[in-house]
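// run 5 | inverse folding | seed 20
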């Protein structure tokens, strides 16, 4: 009967779902007799199954058995006990000796596969399921005992599914532990089974949601969590799941399936990680009980990413926008001179354009890859993370100082491959510098794209950074490949000498801006070191130029000065206690606990995240935040202001930015009165943006607190 029912149900599922299928898993066993498996059609199995027993079995005791699954090729998949919207879980029809029983199976942590809106809970590759094997206390059986059964399961690819069965059997020795060798392969099988939490979870159903509170330490790392529920048809498997950390409790919110099911207990697996070897899982049992609200959002239930093409387009648009942002000033002068000299033929112009584009894209992809690698290693970093390093800021200051002096005519660079002796290589170096200098300007489109890149697979994320570089390089690329644009450039002449000296002004202003940033990062001690190192580097360049010293000596001499300056700058920065600049709004310093306390008051809360190296941040602060009109509106409406200063690395701020889908600053959040969820404001604020929000808040809430009201007459 079970065989016939399995075949019928499998056929109906196949017709209804049109399933894409899933890889069967099985860990190759070491000690059990191999099972004979076949498809229901009699053909060779697509996923082979075999039975193993760990060790001897004594009356009144138990050992562990395993059914291991091995797909014939990688395209075949198997299913978890709750297969999801489609598929079938494994069933076994046992043929056991008298007094022998098999308990419930335990499974590894499954993966998800979404096909045509149907969510499948699958295993890819080899896997094993475990169950306790018990012998009754009064048994007088003599070994070895034959344990046999028929396993029914489904093997699928992305296009077809095949119901299969396996005749499985193994022999178990009768005896106490240690009387026979144990199968060492079971240690590997057990390692794949998620451990069971020793404290129960609680759950409740409310407003179409299953809310689940799982014990989970507040300081433990968690990424891309997902709940697999053992009970079928309770939740909408394909709906996004939301997670928040409330103290030492992880709260999950999952859309209900609408079937009316309301059990008294639940069980399942909490998966942490995207999948593969990095994924971890915890088993839990849940009972009805209170589920806390609020907390720190880890994953919003409605946080769906736009399409990959839209993300790539946003990154491209952000890179294009960077060409007019002030952060690119350190390299605009280099690019202007390069374009002015482009009087050569079309072939040379195209080579220069391609070299510049290659430099820009290499730098953006390398910076993105470094950020992703650091985050994967557990570091809390975001876009433009290199500007949070004192040594990098010092190196940029020295570079800007040398370029300024070069433009002013203090010295000429020797003939090295990265200068006029090799124009494509010079354009490549200019592109590298352009990308590094542009990272502080997180444009409105670029920030969203890079924030999304943090949640995408590595290959797609790197494509986002490449699209950013292509957008940044596009104007120069068009100049090289469109003759009509090249002919509009001014022709080389004596004017270039004067123009070059004029370009020393914006480069000098860039050096001054970096000097100011140095004081913010490392104080006056670091600024003194930077000034001395800059003077020494320019003086060495002047002496080398006048004495016509070879290029190798330039590199070694100035490199030693720069290296010494970077080391001393890092020491000074480590000893410096950065103080935030005074603000008209008298904001509190950001922390998650401070934000929770501010929101608990029921007043409106405005939080902004900034950095001294972020030009966009400073422009917004001057236009919209640090204004008397904003301060007065905040005072009248009782708005609580809070600032997160990200000038130097701050792990808590980086983690919060990531939760909000932002890869960097600026980020502006408005929490309306009454504890409502945050409203993320545009990255480009207008003078009245915050004033209007405060007035709207004041119109909905009393302007004075109860203890400030006048006495009744």
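// decoded
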């Amino acid at each position: 009967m079970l065989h016939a029912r399995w075949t019928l149900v499998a056929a109906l599922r196949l017709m209804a779902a049109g399933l894409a299928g899933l890889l069967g898993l099985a860990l190759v066993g070491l000690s059990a007799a191999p099972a004979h498996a076949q498809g229901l059609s009699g053909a060779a199995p697509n996923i082979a199954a075999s039975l193993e027993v760990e060790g001897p079995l004594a009356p009144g005791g138990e050992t562990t058995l395993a059914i291991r699954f091995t797909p014939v090729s990688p395209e075949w998949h198997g299913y978890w006990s709750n297969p999801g919207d489609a598929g079938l879980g494994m069933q076994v029809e046992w043929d056991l000796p008298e007094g022998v029983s098999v308990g419930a199976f335990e499974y590894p942590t499954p993966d998800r596969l979404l096909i045509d809106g149907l969510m499948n809970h699958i295993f890819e590759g080899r896997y094993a399921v475990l169950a306790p094997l018990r012998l009754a206390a009064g048994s007088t059986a003599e070994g070895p005992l034959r344990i046999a059964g028929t396993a029914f399961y489904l093997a699928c690819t992305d296009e077809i599914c095949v119901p299969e069965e396996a005749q499985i059997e193994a022999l178990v020795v009768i005896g106490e532990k240690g009387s026979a060798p144990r199968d060492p392969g079971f240690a590997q099988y057990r390692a794949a089974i998620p451990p069971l939490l020793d404290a129960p979870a609680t759950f409740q159903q409310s407003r179409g949601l299953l809310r689940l509170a799982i014990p989970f330490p507040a300081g433990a790392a968690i990424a891309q969590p997902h709940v697999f529920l053992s009970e079928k048809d309770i939740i909408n498997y394909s709906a996004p799941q939301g997670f928040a950390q409330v103290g030492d409790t992880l709260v999950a919110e999952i859309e209900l399936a609408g079937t009316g099911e309301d059990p008294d207990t639940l069980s399942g697996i909490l998966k942490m990680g995207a999948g593969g070897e990095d994924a971890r899982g915890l088993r839990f049992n849940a009972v009805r009980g209170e589920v806390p609200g609020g907390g720190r959002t880890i994953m919003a239930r409605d946080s769906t990413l736009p399409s990959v093409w839209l993300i790539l387009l946003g990154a491209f648009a952000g890179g294009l926008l960077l060409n007019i942002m002030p952060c690119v000033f350190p390299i605009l002068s280099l690019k202007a001179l390069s374009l002015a000299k482009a009087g050569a033929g079309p072939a040379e112009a195209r080579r220069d354009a391609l070299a510049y584009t290659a430099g820009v894209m290499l730098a953006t992809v390398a910076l993105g890859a470094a950020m992703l690698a650091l985050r994967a290693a557990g570091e809390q970093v975001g876009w433009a993370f290199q500007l949070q390093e004192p040594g990098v800021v010092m190196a940029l200051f020295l570079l800007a100082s040398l370029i300024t002096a070069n433009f002013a005519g203090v010295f000429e660079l020797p003939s090295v491959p990265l200068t006029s002796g090799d124009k494509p290589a010079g354009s490549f170096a200019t592109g590298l510098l352009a990308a590094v200098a542009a990272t502080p300007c997180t444009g409105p489109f670029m920030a969203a794209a890079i924030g999304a890149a943090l949640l995408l697979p590595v290959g797609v994320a790197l494509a986002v950074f490449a699209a950013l570089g292509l957008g940044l390089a596009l104007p120069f690329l068009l100049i090289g490949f469109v003759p009509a644009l090249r002919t509009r450039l001014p022709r080389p002449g004596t004017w270039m000498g004067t123009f070059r000296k004029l370009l020393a002004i914006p480069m000098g202003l860039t050096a001054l801006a970096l000097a100011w940033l140095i004081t913010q990062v490392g104080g006056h001690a670091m600024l003194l070191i930077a000034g001395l190192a800059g003077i020494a580097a320019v003086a060495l360049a002047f002496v080398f130029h006048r004495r016509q010293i070879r290029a190798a000596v330039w590199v070694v001499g100035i490199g030693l000065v720069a290296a010494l300056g970077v080391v001393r700058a890092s020491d000074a920065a480590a000893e410096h206690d950065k103080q935030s600049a005074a603000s008209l709004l008298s904001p509190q310093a950001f922390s998650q606990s401070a934000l929770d306390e501010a929101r608990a008051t029921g007043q409106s809360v405005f939080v902004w995240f900034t950095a001294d190296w972020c030009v966009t941040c400073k422009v917004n602060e001057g236009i919209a935040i640090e204004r008397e009109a904003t301060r007065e509106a905040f005072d009248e409406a009782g708005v609580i202001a809070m600032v997160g200063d990200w000038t130097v690395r701050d792990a808590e701020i980086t983690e919060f930015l990531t939760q909000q889908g932002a890869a960097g600053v600026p980020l502006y959040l408005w929490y309306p009165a009454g504890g409502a969820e945050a409203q993320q404001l545009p990255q480009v604020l207008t003078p009245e943006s915050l004033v209007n929000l405060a007035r709207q808040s004041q119109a909905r809430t009393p302007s004075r607190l109860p203890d400030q009201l006048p006495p009744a007459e």
